[in-house]
Amino acid sequence: MNELILIRDLLIQRNGRDALIVNSLQIQRGETLAIVGPNGAGKSTLLLALARLIKPKHGEILFNGNPISQMNDIEYRRKISFVFQDPLLMDMSVANNIALGLKFRGTDRDELRERVIRWSQAMGVESLLGRRAGQLSGGEAQRVSLARAFVLDPELLLMDEPFSAVDPPTRSQLLNDLSTLLSQDHRTTIFVTHNLKEAAQVGDRVAVIINGELKQVGTPKEIKEKPADKSVEEFLKEL
Question: Which of 66, 116, 176, 187 is the most buried (most CB within 10 A)?
Fold first, then answer.
């Protein structure tokens, strides 16, 4: 078994209505799964369920073969990192922002410094380590947010449209850098976007969620050439 995540018969309700239905989804260890769909389709809801920030009505999510509902909360959260649309940086230096999670975990000082330098270099922000978060551009802030997520060495990286708030040239460069990094790092990643071109660039496979239901999973080529149903076909036409 090489799957990290297995989802079965999942139903999530929000405000009394069905927000997400996933009959079955397997996510392989080391793969990047890009999730696409219209606004409000349920993409972020899936990430929140995987982060245990929202509780399913029924069904289960298995992580390494174990139901996440039965795992210790702190133990599970240490296995994942979440990158949001907004960087959500603290009012402190870039170095301290990247190191924050490691400090909470009591990481040895020398190891902390080595990991901060490594991931600040990987995300191209090493020259900004002494700068305060409030002095960063949008692209720089999101690079720091990515470094803060990677530095924790998560087994699962969740990314909710992390580049939607930056300008197109910055977004393009961030996507190029991230796709290169993920291809080298082989970290299991779920990347949410509403842009199929971005999904194809970053993801090994693409999952399509429409109207709160997982409709199709496959390579970008498979989805473009053989949409699962009319709703997927119509979504692709609108892109």
Answer: 116
Give the side-chain half-sphere CA count within 13 A for 174: 23
In this predicted model, what pLDDT tens digit does every residue of 162-209 receive, in sequence order? 988 888 899 999 999 999 999 898 899 999 998 888 999 999 999 999
Amino acid at 44: S
In this prediction the pTM is: 0.94
What are the b/e assignments for 51-78, b being 16+ CB within 10 Å? bbebebeebebbbeeeebeeeeeeebbb
**Assigned token pair, 216:** 């199709």
CA gap 78, 63 in Å, rounded = 13
Q: Where are the beta strands (DSSP E) in the chain?
A: 3-14, 17-28, 32-36, 58-63, 66-67, 80-83, 156-160, 188-192, 205-210, 213-218
Q: What tens digit of pLDDT does each residue of 74-84 get?
A: 999 999 999 99
